[in-house]
Amino acid sequence: MYNNIASLYHFVYPNWNEAIAKHGTALNGVIHNFVGAAPLLILDVSWVSEPKH
Q1: Is 36 exposed, middle or buried (0-12, 13-18, 19+ CB in 10 A)?
Q2: pTM higher than 0.70 for the full model?
């Protein structure tokens, strides 16, 4: 699915790097409020491979 929509991301996020920085800052605030200050190790498991046919 990602490969099908990857070419359209510029419509949602015209400046991808700026969007990532903004979302990272917001997420950092949420994590800080729930678990405290750094140093922390966060495991990102959001990537899912496409099924093999």
Answers
A1: exposed
A2: no
3-class state of residue 9 by DSSP = helix
The DSSP letter of residue 48 is -
pLDDT tens digits along 23-43: 989 988 888 898 887 666 777
Please spell the DSSP secondary structure of 12-46, one letter per residue: H-SSHHHHHHHHHHHHHHHHHHHH-SSP-------
Determine contact, residues 51/44, Cβ cutoff 8 Å: no
The amino acid at 29: G
Position 4 scores a pLDDT of: 84
